[in-house]
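This protein record is not my work; I was only asked to verify it. Would you go through it and say whether the fold makes sense for this chain? Here is the record exactly as it was handed to me.
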Amino acid sequence: MPVLERIQSEIEAHPIVLFMKGTPQFPMCGFSSRTSQALKAAGANGFHSINVLEDPEIRANLPRYSNWPTFPQLFINGELIGGCDITLELYESGELARMIAEAQKA
């Protein structure tokens, strides 16, 4: 399967997808760590994560797919939410918890 189709099928298969460096248990960069912590704190218990360090094809092509240059990248219900800064802003405003609750309900 071509990499852009693989990316799309991951995003469509899970309500919350975090493309990150490392894993939520063992993040390999501070931004990925803070983003996954914000997701957990906002109530996302079973979000799907993809370690871009283990998949160079996804790491190379996701920025083209999403039109977002950096990692991590958070998708909720198939929509790019953004990276670390945006996720933390949404978390602090309470918006992230609402988005996660809706995504997990759907």
The mean pLDDT is 96. The helical segments are 3-13, 30-41, 56-66, 84-93, 95-105.
